[in-house]
Design goal:
The complex is a heterodimer of chains A (246) and B (261). With 246 residues, chain A is mostly helical. Chain A is built from nine helices and four strands. In chain A, the strands form two sheets. Chain A has a two-stranded antiparallel sheet with strand order 1-2. A two-stranded antiparallel sheet of chain A has the order 3-4. Classes of the chains: A mainly alpha (246), B alpha+beta (261). The interface between A and B is large, with 50 and 60 residues. The structure holds FE2/S2 (inorganic) cluster.
């Protein structure tokens, strides 16, 4: 293999091996940026679709269970989508951890005084909110997909002998502790996506003054938060009940 | 206007190897007409008179065009006045009795040489990696031989205003140099003369930037706020887009970070 030497700022010589163009791209600073933007965008789009799905709780048991049944029966789609989401998530996290490590190394010594002026706290805590959201997703899967958190609510069937996802949802969010966990999870997600939604166009170099998506980032994230928390909140306040909606 | 008496907390470091620390000084009789650097000159005179070692800091033109002056002043590069270098920052912005914190740029790629002076050589390496533009030699071309739209010329000029002071790196929580590198690229790529080597240059300069140990951009835009020449984030969007094109779609042969590829 052909190796080349670089002298870094402090005179340390490092050897860099020639890689194929794709590996080189993926390992470059801007390549990593693009990977973060694309995987982040796809995960964000999933989050939007997922939220719209849950809004069907307002349509009552039959509507929601039909939707759940529809998703569950599409196993040829379900498993590839799940696998794809998992890959996106893993790539997003691994690249992010690499970036955090590089960024820490690039600023080893802190300022005695440092005043950030335009960066948001949400932007500067992406690594923390990201990992917290990851933990939340793990909890969410254990809760509603695997069914270990509230097993008593997990195996009920509705009048048409379908899996009763509606009841599971209602029983789940009648519990204030569960509601609290999801509320916290959604706050973290909204903070994370607030910066993400503001960033991806710039990262891909597609930001255009005619489409100020970057400035709308926090608003988009807030919309997602409201959409996600509306059905659980309706359950908690008794608007969506075991015996119906309203 | 009356003169100022100030308390300064200044980073002192004997050389690149030894550890540094913040040291507190009192400086007296500073005219509000003085620039920030002249204030440091006054302090240095007072230190020299006392037999102490004067504070080392970078400066050259003192008129905001060379990019030598630096200094993190109260947590903001160049003191945080919009579009102002430290040499153009005037003491009338301070009040009698103020406490001022003065630190060097902090980045792995910019090691401290002494006190407030840092080594910004990595910027030179990035520039060298950019190579040259293709231009015909021979007799001087006629004016307006190459037609350039006014907007392109203006945009290019805006990017060319970068004086490579490093405030963007200093302000970035990640120590990223992307605003600088992107400004240098946009300066050429917004003009027809920069086009022949555009893909190659983008790859070479980004590779040199990465090799120098700068951090990665997280779209915080602290660089934009800190830039004494008001360079806008648009140049980074251009670089991000060009880099994707260059890395994924160009037929460029292997690019070396020294720009010779
Ligand atoms: S000393 Fe030249 S820009 Fe400040």
């Amino acid at each position: 293999m052909f190796a080349r030497d670089h002298a870094t700022a402090r005179g340390i010589r490092v050897t860099e091996f020639h890689m194929t163009w794709l590996v080189r791209y993926a390992r470059s600073s801007i390549g990593a940026k693009h990977i973060m933007a694309v995987t982040g965008l796809l995960l964000f789009l999933f989050a939007v679709v997922h939220m719209i799905g849950h809004l069907q709780m307002f349509g009552g048991r039959d509507m929601y269970n039909t939707y759940a049944h529809f998703l569950q029966s599409l196993w040829e789609v379900k498993w590839p989508v799940r696998a794809g989401l998992l890959v996106l998530l893993i790539v997003h996290i691994i690249v992010a951890l690499g970036l955090v490590a590089k960024n820490r190394a690039a600023r080893p010594e802190r300022y005695a005084k440092f005043k950030p002026v335009v960066s948001s706290a949400a932007g500067r805590t992406m690594a923390f909110t990201g990992l917290a959201v990851f933990a939340f997703i793990a909890f969410h899967i254990i809760h509603f997909t695997v069914g270990w958190v509230q097993p008593e609510a997990f195996h009920t069937l509705d009048a048409e002998k379908r899996w009763d996802a509606y009841s599971m949802f209602v029983i789940g969010f009648q519990n204030p502790a569960i509601y609290g966990v999801y509320f916290a999870g959604m706050v973290l997600l909204a903070l994370h996506l607030g910066h993400g939604a503001a960033s991806w166009l710039q990262s891909l170099g597609l930001r255009h003054p005619k489409y100020p998506v970057d400035r709308l980032g926090p608003l988009i994230a807030f919309g997602l938060f409201v959409g996600y928390m509306a059905p659980p909140t309706a359950v908690l306040v008794g608007l969506i009940r075991m015996n119906g909606v309203g | 206007m009356s003169d100022l008496n100030l308390t300064l907390h200044v980073w002192r470091q004997r050389n690149a190897k030894s550890p540094g620390k913040m040291v507190t000084y009192k400086v007296t009789g500073v005219s509000t007409h003085a620039s920030f650097l002249e204030m440091l000159d006054i302090l240095n005179e007072q230190l020299t008179a006392k037999g102490e070692e004067p504070i080392a800091f970078d400066h050259d033109c003192r008129e905001g065009i060379c990019g030598m002056c630096s200094l993190m002043i109260n947590g903001r590069p160049h003191g945080g006045q919009r579009a102002t270098t430290t040499c153009q920052l005037h003491m009338r912005h301070f009040k009698n009795g103020d406490e001022i914190w003065i630190e060097p740029w902090r980045a792995e790629a910019f090691p401290v040489i002494k006190d407030l002076c840092v080594d910004r050589t990595p910027f030179d390496r990035v520039i060298a990696a950019g190579g040259f533009i293709t231009a015909n030699c021979g007799s001087a071309p006629d004016a307006n031989d190459i037609l350039i739209p006014k907007e392109s010329a203006d945009d290019s000029m805006d990017a060319a205003a970068c004086i490579a002071c490093g405030a963007c790196v200093a302000a970035c929580p990640n120590g990223s140099a992307m605003l600088f590198v992107a400004a240098k690229l946009a300066h050429l790529h917004r003009l027809p003369q920069g086009q022949p080597e555009r893909m190659h240059r983008t790859q070479a300069m980004v590779t040199a930037m990465d090799a120098a140990g700068f951090g990665n951009c997280s779209n915080h835009y602290e660089c934009e706020a800190a830039c004494p020449k008001d360079i806008k984030r648009d140049v980074m969007a251009l670089m991000n887009r060009d880099y994707a094109k260059a890395a994924l779609a160009s037929r460029d042969r292997e690019t070396k970070s020294d720009g010779s590829g």
